[in-house]
Amino acid sequence: MRHDGADLVLTRRLARVLGEPHAGADGRHRDEPSPFTDGDLVGAVSAVCVVERLRPDCGEPGVSAIHKAAVEGPAAVNSLGLLGDQQADRAHHGGLDKALYVMDAAEARHWAGVLAPERELAAGNLGENMLIEPSASGGVDDVEIGAVLSIGPAGGAGEPAEEGRGILVRVTGVRNPCPTFARGLGRGDWVEVFSERARVGVYLSVLRDGSVAAGDEVRLVSNPGHRVTCHRWFAHHDPRDAQAMLASEAFGNLRLAAFTRKYVTAAADEQVG
Length: 273
Hints:
Layout: E1 41-51, E2 55-56, E3 63-64, E4 68-70, E5 75-78, E6 81-82, E7 100-104, H1 105-115, E8 130-134, E9 148-152, E10 167-174, H2 179-185, H3 190-195, E11 202-208, E12 210-212, E13 217-222, H4 230-236, H5 239-250, H6 258-268
Parallel strand pairs: 7-8
Antiparallel strand pairs: 1-4, 1-8, 1-13, 2-3, 5-6, 5-12, 7-11, 9-10, 9-13, 10-11
Helix pairs in contact: 5-6
């Protein structure tokens, strides 16, 4: 394969496409609520990652920043994400609503097994800024869209345990696996393969600056209360869930990020089944 992936034959360009019924999902949830309530432990940070190198990519920017690597010690975070990180395709990645992309560490281990032995997978190689080891109740994909989380040293309970440490974030939506991701892994079927488990990781906006490090706790501060988790939304794109999120926003309990709202709005009037 060419270094920029131009000769890779993609079987699908995006996992979820506007205008397709239920955007490629099955359209019917099974009423899976979030297992977390306010104050619950969602997990613990196992790695914090920033861009390691830019790789040639045949996409419009010409390069990709998807290959990231773990850093040592506390890493500073501001409203645009981790200091030292970057995004090549600013039209679809980064910005205030996609300041951080985090993944369940158990999912990363699963994909490492899928890709071995052809490809060795280290922390950050799936484009994630943080890996979060799940709690006994569930992982980061099991929080509601719009949930507010604290990430910081144990015992913080939503407040900094020490000066400058810990951040407050909002879950803004889910990853939509794309051609850049497929080219980065060198698999034309990667969009479908990665999406099949419907645990694609989540984007965060930063509500309070600070720093994060491996070992930090991730706790739920508050839920919007619409019951639609990140996993449930990606798996189903159920019109009933779309309507619940729009109602939650109308009542002031949820702020839908623009990149999420367009899919929510599109799904709200679809016929189920």
